[in-house]
Specification:
about 425 residues, binds iron/sulfur cluster, Rossmann fold, globular, binds 5'-deoxyadenosine, alpha/beta, five-stranded mixed β-barrel
Length: about 425
């Protein structure tokens, strides 16, 4: 079968979004064309996430749905990304799923060959080899027209937090040459992007020869025309004072940081292998706020890690209250194959208890978020317009301020990608609202 119309669906984190953009370039450089809708495609790829069990479940459901919609008509289905590495055997062997090819996060350059093997030779194919070197620095992603450009500066993770599957699905840390990154940023400016978000599983563990993350940030910040630089996701262990000082000094480095706490109890932090204590974390947040007074801080938290007692959970609540995060992603612990936590500790916090803790923590955080957002009422923020409509209304536009908060304001003769001054007039837990001034 001559299959060349492709469609890719992306699940999971921004790194996956970015990888999809790489895959689009790799395939369109060969004889493949991108189509806008899944049903027009003869090759459908799902770029998958494995970080929690419900991400996996979603993918299985989606594969069945695609097969069902096609009602026996030929379509090749490929699995890319994090599920590929761990589930290669299960995915290929399950006759009900009917997966045709699989490519892990370091095998995207093999995709044309893998697809050729299935479509021309009728042979299921896979490559899930993890590389110590692949950074795709020679591939320019097919970016969506948009206001923000994602740019992966490093891949993989060496931390082995005990709950996390990423080191197994994405392999070891490796960083790109800073000069190559700067060249890409310069090109982005020429294409009209003014905001870049540097990406990595452990973005601030970046190291290339003598250059560390602070050195790289300085180089990127020096690129003329870049107005907003963000980065995600960092690890609290890699926040030297010099990085915070640089963030404070440079107007084009956004005053925003994602600082994953994960848990507030020292015993749980230790079992998680996070390498910091509660006090060290609180100290870091305080230091960041001292050096960059208006900094917005967001976080990730896991509730119900194996053995987490009620008291230990309350430690997390206390740290959340003390940290005054602007925003928090709260997850229920979900055991992942191969991880140390899964091998060593039974998943012994009940589903009900995890649900209760999630609700309790969400309530605490929502109150903090709302209060922090309300404190901005009356201020004037520079907003980068993202969408000429909002989720709730076509009469509103959506943008983000420097702190990465969503700002909603009445529609007008402005274009996505432009900056506009907005006076904040109201705020909810999740968004700021305002009017152009
Ligand atoms: N269970 C629940 N949440 C997890 N995360 C990572 N692994 C797990 C897991 N096994 C969360 C962490 C991480 C975010 C991306 O996903 O909070 O920071
Ligand atoms: Fe996972 Fe920890 Fe690495 Fe983040 S730092 S990707 S949570 S192992």
């Amino acid at each position: 079968m001559q299959a060349n119309k492709i469609f890719i669906e992306t699940y999971g984190c921004q790194m996956n979004e970015y990888d999809t953009e790489l895959v689009k370039t790799i395939l369109t450089q060969q004889d493949y064309t991108l189509v806008k809708e899944e049903r027009q495609a003869d090759i459908v790829m799902l770029n998958t996430c494995s970080v929690r069990e419900n991400a996996n479940r979603k993918i299985y459901g989606r594969i069945h749905e695609i097969r069902h919609e096609r009602q026996g008509k030929p379509v090749l289905i490929g699995i890319l990304g994090c599920m590929a590495t761990n589930f290669r055997k299960a995915l290929l062997d399950d006759p009900h799923l009917g997966i045709d090819f699989i490519a892990g996060p370091d095998s995207y350059k093999q995709l044309p060959t893998l697809i050729h093997e299935v479509s021309q030779q009728g042979q299921k194919s896979f490559d899930v080899t993890l590389s110590e070197f692949e950074t795709y620095s020679d591939i320019t992603p097919t970016r969506k027209d948009g206001v923000n450009a994602w740019l992966a500066i490093m891949r993989g993770c060496n931390n082995f937090c005990s709950f996390c599957v990423v080191p197994y699905t994405r392999g070891r840390e490796r960083s790109r040459d800073p000069h190559n990154i700067v060249q890409e940023v310069e090109k982005l400016v020429q294409e009209g992007f003014t905001q870049v978000t540097l990406l990595g599983q452990n973005v601030n563990s970046y190291r290339y020869e003598d250059s560390d993350f602070t050195d790289l940030m300085k180089m990127v910040s020096d690129v003329k025309g870049i107005k907003r630089i963000r980065y995600t996701s960092p690890h609290p262990k890699d926040f030297p004072i010099k990085l915070l000082r640089l963030m404070a000094e440079r107007p084009n480095i956004c005053k925003q940081v994602h600082m994953p706490l994960q848990a507030g109890s020292n015993r749980i932090l230790d079992k998680m292998n996070r390498t910091y204590t509660q006090a060290e974390f609180l100290n870091l947040v305080a230091q960041a706020r001292e050096i960059i007074p208006n900094i917005a801080v967001s976080t990730d938290i896991i509730v119900g890690f194996p053995g987490e007692t009620d008291e230990e959970f309350e430690d997390t609540v206390k740290v959340v209250e003390a940290s005054q995060f602007d925003f928090a992603f709260i997850f229920k612990y979900s055991p992942r194959q191969n991880t140390l936590a899964d091998r060593k500790y039974p998943d012994d916090v009940s589903a009900e208890e995890k649900a209760r803790r999630t609700i309790r923590l969400n309530d605490v955080q929502r109150a903090i978020s709302h209060q922090k957002n309300l404190a901005h009422v009356g201020e004037i923020h520079e907003v980068l317009i993202e969408q000429e409509s909002s989720k709730k209304s076509p009469d509103d536009f959506k943008g983000r301020n420097d702190a990465n908060k969503i700002v909603i304001f009445p529609a007008g003769p402005y274009k996505a990608g432009a900056y506009i001054s907005i006076k904040i007039t109201d705020a909810t837990t999740n968004v700021l609202k305002g009017i152009p001034v």
